[in-house]
Structures are given as structure tokens and as C-alpha cells.
Amino acid sequence: MDVRVIHRLALMLAVLTGVLVASGNKQNIDKEEQINSGVQLKDIVFVVLSQKNPYHEKRADIFRQDFESQIKELPVDEKPQLVFIHQEFRNVLGAWNVFPLLPTFSKDYANAAWLFVCEEETRLDVHKLLKVLQRFDHTKDLYLGHPLRDQSPTIIHHYAFHDNPSKFAYADWGAGFVLSQPLLAKMGKRWPDKEFKADFTIDPKHELARYILSDAINVTLTPVTEICLVKKSKKCASWYPMMFPDCGPEIPEEDLYVAVKTCAKYHKERIPIVRKTWGKDAKNVEYYSDVEDRTIPTINLGIPNTERGHCGKTMAIIRRLQSHPRISQIPWFIIVDDDTIINLRRLRKLLACYDSKFPIHMGEKYGYMVTKNEHGYTYITGGGGMVFNKEAIDVIVLTHRADCPSNDAPDDMILGRTFKAIGLPLVHSPYFHQARPVDYSQEFLSARTAISFHKHWMNDPIQTYNDLIASDDYMDTLNTAEEEMSKSEIENSEQDITRSDVGDDSVYQKEEL
Fold this sequence. Notes:
Helices cover about 30% and strands about 15% of the residues. It has about 525 residues and is an alpha/beta fold. The strands form 7 sheets. Strands 14-13-12-15-20-17-21 form a 7-stranded mixed β-sheet. The chain has a 6-stranded mixed β-sheet with strand order 2-1-3-8-5-10. A hairpin with an 8-residue loop joins strand 18 (about 365-370) and strand 19 (about 375-380). The longest helix is centred in the N-terminal third of the chain and has 34 residues, at about 5-35. The N and C termini lie far apart (about 70 Å). The relative contact order is 0.12.
């Protein structure tokens, strides 16, 4: 047979094979879409990790308005369920880390196909999200989201996957994550799981992903491109637009008091760095030590230095703040370590969002024994800075709770236990950080404008501070990135809202951290 004829036959066979393969793939895709086409919005339960505080309740209400505007044309029995944890689960201590809610979710939402969990600042296109989820088989164990990865082993993740941390992907909750009903049922049936150690809650998004990957569950995160962290494409079905809130001008410098905890051995090592960087921007700042040093100057409250905990020193500071004739009239306070690195102007910008008349204890929230039972408590971790207002300070002192079991007890944890006893919910802010920049996913940091980091160890504090203030100019020339609602709608919804609420729901972003 002629060689050219053989080549033609081979070519024709290849083309025919390709057509058949493509046809088969298309049939498989069509079959998959046909299988899932029955899933509708009513089959998705939306859970918002909202917070009990006037400002955050307002933000949750804005989320609700945006969400309901997208489904207003649907019949009542076709509308999806929307759940805010600050309302439905306000008495569940660890609801913010999701773990304690797993059994309830698996039982109450057993007829749902999907559970979508997000934060109050997440934004959605619910109809695009439905089309995305229709591509996946909801009868399988699936965990969907926008992947974050660590570049090096980090203390905040308990040095997990230390040999290659980047191999492990975990969902950014700001973008939202999705659990299929079978996966949710499996998790809910096992929780509280005795095989999974969860004494401390540090980064719940990482810890939940590790549990989902554990031997008992054994499911990895499936990345979904339409679940976006930053909305860079019209294809995004969910995204996280809140780089940093804009509630108007920052509070005046004189309305913020800064207490720095230090000790004699760090007077020459750390305090000069503080004074060279953020300390020079503080109008009201004082340094509390175990010895008096007039060159700084420091204040000695008679509490000896301890190698850890520092509860005695912190409570002595709080008692002084409450009793001092001048200081006690300042509306806002922050207690920091001498190796905390912070942007005070940005902090004052954030505080403009909150009502100083409502007791607040705010920062980066951790938990102790809150995933499996109600006997634990949440606390604001001290390294990133612990924010209080005058009302919160008064509550601690006037209820005779400004004391410690010992001077070296962990101050932040004792405060958390104290506020639990008082009944004051703590406010988590994603802009405070207990660790160094390198300890966080860089993509996570790039979507949020940081206020603070912690530690000089294996870290250049001056460079970290310079990075923190490098983007401050954006606060003077904020550009609207996206209108979540029209200005008139927001003004109408805010007629009965106090100063603690946002006056405009414009979302502001900068391009880089």
C-alpha cells in the first residue's frame, strides 16, 4: 500500500478518535451537569460568621440586604436559608470556629445539598454560585474554597506539615468555603472527635481544614476559581472586598492611650526600636516595667518581672488606667508588648467604626477548650495588642475582677476568662496579628490591611514597621472599589443607628499591602 495512503488513513483515524473522545467527554460533562441540575438555591444553606457587637451587627445587616436583594424575585419556598451565628448561635461559645456547630449543622441541614460558610464582609453573587456548585456532585464528600498555603512552618499552625507546609491547602473563610451534605454529616456524626486534638483555637480555618484531612475524614480542599479572595474577574461568585473599613476620619490622637509592657533587660534592646518606629506617633504612651528608668521614662507598679504570663503587671496597668484622674477620661486604650509592631494611625482609623460607649475588648481572638465543650473561653491574644475602651476597663475594675491567680498567669487568657464571666463578647479583628508576617499566608495578608504584628525574633522590626506604614497614604486618598449598596439605601437603613455604625457602605481597597 502506498505510504501516503497509509498516512491519510492514520490521520483520518486520529481525527475520528479525537471526535469520539471529545464527544464522550462532552457526554460525561453533560451527564454530570444533568445529575446536578436539580440543585437549586433552596438547597444551599448560607451561614455567616457574624459577631455580637453594634458595628458588626450593622455589617451583618448590610450583608443580609445585599443577599435578599438577589433573591427577592424567588417564591418564598424557593429561597435559600440564611443564618447569622450572632443570632442563631449566640450562646454557643466557640461558634466562631465552626467546630461546635458541626453536629447541629449536620442535623438541622440534613436535607440541604451544600453548606456555604463565610464572613460578614464576604460578598456573593448567589446565582453565579449556584451555577458553580451545579458543576460538582453534592452526593460526594467535597470541601470547596479558595486555597491558602503556608510557605514555611509556622507557630500559629503548630508547625504542621513542617517538611513541606505548602503542600497543604486550606480555605480562606473571607472568600467563603463549601461543605457537601455527606461530608457535613460525616463530620457532625464524629464531633466532638476524641482523636483530634483541639485544646487551643488559634487559626480555625487551618484547624478545620486539618480535621477534614485527618484520617477520620480524609478529604482535601478542592480549589474553585470562582470562589475568589479578591474580585479580579466577572466570573467570581464570592469574594472578600474589605481590605480595611472606612468609617470616616480616624479618632483624635488624644483619644487613644498606649501602655507598653517591658522589663529592665529590654530597656536598651527593644524600647529604642519602639521609640524609633511607632512610639513616636503616640501622643499618650507610657512604658511599664519592673524598674524605674527615668531616661525612657518607665513606670514601676511594684510588680516583679516574670518570664511568662505577666498577668500581675497587666492587671496593675488596668487598675491604674481606671483610677488615674486624667488617663481614666481617655475613651480608648491598647496594651501592647515591647516587641509589638503596630500602626497607630491605622488603629485610630479602625476605632472610628466602634461606639466608645459600648464595652469592647478587641484584637486577634484565640480560644481555649472552646471547640468541644462550653467550659473554655475565648481571649484576645496579647502580642498583637489588646484593645479596650473606658467602659470595658471600668467593668473589670468595678466588678473587682482586676486580679490574677499569680503574677505569671497568662494575662490575655485570664482577661478572656474574666470577660466570659462578665458576659461581654470579645470582638475579633483580622487586622491584628500575634506573630510575624512570615508566619501567615502571604495571600491572606494581601487581602487585608494589617494593623499589627508581633516579635523581633528572626524578624526585622524596623522593616516590618516600614511595611506597615508604607500604604498609609491610601487613607488620605481612598478610592471606592465597589458599592455594596447605593448610598441612599444605606442612609435610609441607618437613620436609627448610632455612631458605631458605618455611614457609607463603600468598600475601599488598595492594590498592595
